[in-house]
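Chapter summary example.
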Amino acid sequence: MQDNVKRLIKTCNDLYENKFVSGKSGNVSIRLDDYIAITPTLRSLGDLKEEDIVLVDMKGNCLTSGEPSSEVGMHLAIYKKRDDVNAIVHIHSPYVTGFAFSDKKIKRLEGFGQINQEYLSSIEYERPGSEELALKASEGIKDEDVLILKNHGMICVGNNLKEAQSLAMFIEESAKTQFVSIMLNSVKDI
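The structure predicted for these 190 residues follows.
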């Protein structure tokens, strides 16, 4: 288990150092048999230690000290719905979040799996940490690997942390490319 917690912390540090999260935003978890390891609430992903990671059973009971992310219910709901998911990355990266706060959708680009639909799936806004968000997010991502949360951010899931993190980074870069394209296409030639 200690190696898994170290990988979780390294993933969090990478996301922070590469500016995919800032401040105390975002949360990451991994499934470990019949419980999960999740980042704590109100802590920067950039300076976590092993003792900061919270273990929670599938009913939401804390098995260690500390307070889990306020989004723990969303993580648990996704794990319960998806046996194939062993890692979840939920971040508020700048470009994806910009799209999430706009009326524009993010196109699904080549580079990370088969394209089954033109745009990434999204759900309407629900209050962060709410049961409604947990239910809508777990339903919205049941057949997806990424989900845009309107006016909030994104969730990426994977079989392992590396897969979920790589997907989150790919989606942020896709959003950045599309943003630049929208801006360039909106400028009239001088």
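To summarize the output: The mean pLDDT is 94.
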